[in-house]
Amino acid sequence: MNYRTLGDLKISELSFGTWAIGGAWGKTNDEEAVRGLKQAMEQGVNFFDTADVYGDGHAERLIREATKGQEDQIYVASKFCRAGDIHDPVTYQEESVRHYLEKTLKNLGREQLDLYQIHCPPLEIIKDGSVFEVLDKLQQEGKIRHYGVSVETVEEGLEAMTYKNVRALQVIFNIFRQKPVHELFPIAKEKEVGILARVPLASGLLTGKFKESHQFEEDDHRNFNADGQQFNVGETFAGLPFAKGVALSQELDWIKEGRESMAKAALKWILEHDAVSSVIPGFKTTKQVEDSLGAVDVPAFTGEEMQRLETFYQAHVNEHIRGPY
């Protein structure tokens, strides 16, 4: 495992998000989830990303179980605000944020959180800036080590980085969502802001395993949010209509040549960008953990291949992405 910088932390360049094991991705098995977390740690993963709304704290509690006795070796990032009204300024006031944080710390069984992220707040909340004063205070008290913002758009990311103590941005970034490369990453590098790449496989599209006829479970967000019915459409299939995403993924079958699988290749492509501190695929099984970890060791992309993928995105993908990004 290789490690990259996020604030004063050295985190594994391939880590894991826990939305899938928390809920809203169909059936899960807690014992399998804990085994997956432990398997990742055994192979050098020292960072996990979660949120208070992933199963109403369930994902946080699974991390607590898996990391027990290793709390000083495993870094955890969590998020807040979506348990409340994200448009109400009260959600971001000190009393509210303290309430969210204390609940998260209790779920994790920790006294300090390594990274606390505002969970995709509206642009006006970022511009207002009051919440960052609250986070500064919590940081000074030792409740959080670093803080950052999970964003939906490049504009939100750029605005967040105007606050000097923001140390991380979590962004949707994959072969189907390349906009941050030129507009966000250079400034993040200049300001030494770490990038966490989420939705790296475009909700499974970049595994190449789906056909247009695939039916997702009722409680899977790829069913109930396929067109942005519940939250930002970009969080599901990177904003692409499912059928179009399947067709586009078939055109990318070539990337797996010499790299074992399309999923490993897609994760490797993200790791080719040095602005990225860590890529955080999700998982529900130990096999998915193992498969994702294999991306670290597959062959790198050539400059010609990287250019080919950028051209593909600009010519065939970008126009089909829905929602602001």
Automatic annotation (TrEMBL):
Q: Example GO molecular function term?
A: oxidoreductase activity
For this protein, the record's Gene3D superfamilies field holds: NADP-dependent oxidoreductase domain
UniProt source species: Paenalkalicoccus suaedae
What protein am I looking at? Answer: Aldo/keto reductase
Against InterPro entries, the record matches this protein to:
AKR, AKR2_Oxidoreductase, NAD(P)_OxRdtase_dom_sf, NADP_OxRdtase_dom
| SUPFAM superfamilies per the UniProt record, alphabetical | NAD(P)-linked oxidoreductase
Where is the NADP-dependent oxidoreductase domain positioned along the sequence? 13-312
